[in-house]
Structure formats: structure tokens, C-alpha cells
Specification:
Blueprint: H1 5-30, H2 32-65
Helix pairs in contact: 1-2
Length: 69
């Protein structure tokens, strides 16, 4: 499974969601100008990245349920 290209894309997409989330939470925790300027934008990016990750996960599950390698 680890050598499956679609699995690697799913893993990278999930990692991107976590990175965006951590940057957003870090900015929110510190507050200040960074949070005021970029807080909402980062959360919008997280939602978009999360939607892409979910779509890729669903595609991965669909492909594996049909017997695809």
C-alpha cells in the first residue's frame, strides 16, 4: 500500500491539511497582526484542502473496493 501513488497523494493531502491547521491555530493563539491579516484566509485554505483530501480519500476507497491496485 505504501508504494501506491494514490495513497501517497492522499497522505500528502492530509499532511497539507494538518500543516495549514497548525499554522492557523498558532497564529490564532499568538493573536496580533498576523492573525488579523491571515486568520480567516488560512481557515478557508484549510477547508479547501480538507475537501480535496476527503475527495481523494473517497476516490482511493472507491478504487480499492473495485479491486484496483
Amino acid at each position: 500500500m505504501l508504494n501506491d501513488p494514490l495513497f501517497m497523494v492522499v497522505a500528502i493531502a492530509c499532511l497539507a491539511v494538518v500543516v495549514i491547521l497548525m499554522i492557523g491555530i498558532g497564529g490564532f493563539a499568538r493573536g496580533g497582526a498576523f492573525n488579523r491579516k491571515h486568520g480567516n484566509r488560512l481557515m478557508r485554505y484549510r477547508i479547501i484542502a480538507q475537501a480535496i483530501a476527503i475527495a481523494l480519500i473517497l476516490l482511493f476507497v472507491f478504487m480499492r473496493s473495485r479491486g484496483g491496485q
